[in-house]
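Hey,
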Amino acid sequence: MRIRRKNDNIEKDNNGTARKVRKKSRIIALSILGVFLTIILVFVAVCGIRWAIHSKKVGAYGDYTFDGGQTRFDLDLFPSLVVDKDAEELKILQITDPQIKFGSFTRDTKTMDLIDRAIKAEQPDICVVTGDLTLSIFTYDAFNYFAKFMEERKQYWTFTYGNHDSQFDCSKYTIYSLLKDYKYCLFSPGPSDVYGESNFLVNIFKDSYAADNLIYSLVLLDSGMYPTDNASLSDWVYDWIRQSQMDWYEWAVNGLRSIKSDIQTSMFFHIPIREFANMYYLNELAKGREVNDVVKSKLPNVEIREVKGVVCESNKSDGEIVYGDDGYTVGIFYQGNAENTTDHPDVFKYIKDLDCTKALFCGHDHVNNLKGYYDGVYLGYGLCCGYHTYPIFDNPKIFTDKVLYNAKLWVDEDGKQMEKGVTVIQIDLTNSAYGALTVNDRQNSYYK
């Protein structure tokens, strides 16, 4: 027979207490895990519902039908901006690739602070966002965030789609449905039967909205996203402007000229055309530098002048990109650069033949700011303003051989590290120098 002692009772009590403590700990851990899983499930459910709502698409929508050019041109089809009667210039603030992710409490605050200071300092007549306003799983909120920001400042703005703006939870139809109710957003989906969903004009008038007061026009085109639905981000191949858009552009130019015979325009879209690469290589030759023989044989005999800026995207991936067999390896990721894409129209030829658009501005390649006159037309990259875009880190310690991660590789013509910024475009509206351009990049520190 075992004699129970006091120590035995104590041991039994301690074991019981320990078991209770362990059981309580398990309950607490399971409760925490349950709460965590519930939060995740609620988040996923909310995102799923939002995705379903925001990804709504319709077969065709727009402000009018183009009908192959049979529709009568009318100024009322387009957004408009009225400047002062005595205005001597049109000032445009080009904002490119902000790639807003979440808004507050992220690097987006640095992007928006830069834009805010630029607007206050420049007092532009209009801001033009040349694509990739967002790159986010919360696209709707990002667009709403930006639109409210501009409304609060009573700043007129317009934009053309980039390859990321409707990539995740938002269709272009939903974006249009959101933006159409904002007073200071001058945006249109364009005609319902033309490729893309941001092909429109912003017509500029002096003093009041009247045909006789039409003074200038901005042409915005949707340069698309990717050549196929299964193209990946790492393919570095992109969509292109289609023939229906060029047919519409010709119709628009002729319509504008029926109202003001000598009118000039500037064009804005996201993804650059190949002429940007041509200008880069011709400028390299002019500086006495070596150029690939295959590339050299394909360069047109055109005049370039006042070329400035840099192309720093060439080490975007592990190796040089070769588009097809033409030897183009510079980091200018232009439209239709996937293999076997031969059906796109010659956008630049349309611009030259119609002789109405005197300048073309784009974004897309974040670490390029090349600018200059190519065959009489001004071609310009906007300076990237997004702090969520690459280069991702301001002071990197690793990945020092990749532009994506290393801001120190983003340098100007003098070898100085460049900053994020905006581009200021000034267009002369006087009779004596009508259409004359002044274009300047303004880096972040310029507004401090």
